[in-house]
Amino acid sequence: MDEAPGTMSILKDDAEPINRRGFIRSLFSLGGLHAATSSCDARAKAAFVWCDLLNGNVGFPTGLSVPFEKPGSLMKLVAAACLVEENLLSQNEKFECTGTFAVGGRVAGKRDTSVHCQFAHGKVDLVRALAVSCNCFFAQATSRLTKRTFLAKARQLGLASPVAGRRGGVFPESEGASGQSSLPYVLGLAEDFKPSCLQLMRMAALIAVGPEGKLPVLHSSENFTLVEKEKPLSVGLTSQAREVLVAGMRHCVMEGTARKLDTQDKLKIAAKTGTTPHGKTFQSHIIGFFPFDKPRNAFCLFAPAGTSQDAAVPEAREILFSTTW
Ligand SMILES: [Zn+2]
Questions:
Q1: What is the 3-state secondary structure (H, E, C) of 210-226?
Q2: Is residue 155 part of a domain?
Q3: What is the Å distance from ligand 1's center to 126 Cα?
Q4: Residue 16 CA, ligand 1 centroid: distance in Å
Q5: What is the total count of domains within the chain?
Q6: What is the pLDDT of residues 200-241, one digit of tens each?
Q7: How does pLDDT run across 132-190, given as a tens digit for each residue?
Q8: Which of 49, 289, 70 is nearest to 164 (CA)?
Q9: Cut 0.85: pTM above it
Q10: Domain interval for residue 140
Q11: How far does residue 321's CA lie from ligand 1's centre (Å)?
Q12: Count H helices, E strands: the chain?
C-alpha cells in the first residue's frame, strides 16, 4: 500500500484528484494508528468509514472491507423517527425504566421475553432514551409501532439501498404481517437485518443534513473515476423528527453512552452507539456526525470485539483524534 504522505495532492474544484489513497491515508496518519491497535493483543481491527457531507467523498482509513452486522441500538434512531412522525408518543411522554421490562409475547416465537438495561434509568423521555440507549423505554414506547412502519422508515433512511457503489446488507424480504411487532428491529437484533457500515454512515449523514438540506451521492475517494449511477436520496425525516434525533445524539455524546468520545467537546459530535451479543462476547457500532450545529462529516465505526463502552467509543475516539478535521 502506498502510504507516502509526500505525494498527497490538494483537490481544487474539478482538478484531477491525484493519489487519493495517499491523501486519505496520510489524513489519518495510519502508521501510528495501526501500531496502536495491534499492540492490544491479536483482536480484530475496527472498521471505520467517514464521508464529507459537502462533496460526498467517502474515506476508508482502516481499509476497504465494509462489515455487515446487526446494528443493535443504532436502530433506536429509526424507531424514534417513527414515534415522532406517526404520533405514537405524546409530547414529552415518559416511561419508567426499572432495569427490566417484560414484553410478553410480542416477540414472535418467544414467550415471556424481557428486555433489560444495565442500570435502572428511572423516568425517561425520548431524547434521554436515545442518549442512554434505554431498552425499557423503547420496548414500552414502540408497543404500537409495527414492523411494517419501522421497515418503511428504515428504507427511507437508506438501509435497503446501495451506497458508494457497494451493495447494501441483508434487509427483511417480508414487510411483516399486519400488526407484527417491530421490537427485534427496534433493538437491531433481528437476524434478517444487517445493514453495512456504509449504509449506517449514510443514515447518520441524512440525519445530519436534515430535510432542508441535500446529501450528495456518496462515492469512494479510492475510486474516483467510477461513474455514479446512484440517485441522491432525499432525507426521509420531518424537521420535528430530525430535531429529536439530533438532540438525542448530542445528549449521547454529552452525557450518554458516548460520553467518553470527546470529553472536551472539541469536535462537537452528535452520535449513537449500539452493542450486540456475539457468541459469548459482544460487537459494537458507533455512528455520528460533526459539528452537530453545522454538519460537515459523518462516520461509522464497527468494533468486532467488545461493547460500545469498551470498544466502539474508544476506538472511534482514537481515529477521530488522529487527524485534524
Ligand atoms: Zn433503561
A1: CCCCCCCCCEECCCCCC
A2: yes
A3: 11
A4: 51
A5: 1
A6: 999 999 999 999 999 999 988 776 555 557 788 889 999 999
A7: 999 999 999 999 999 999 999 999 999 999 998 889 999 999 888 877 889 999 999 99
A8: 49
A9: yes
A10: 42-320
A11: 30
A12: 10, 10
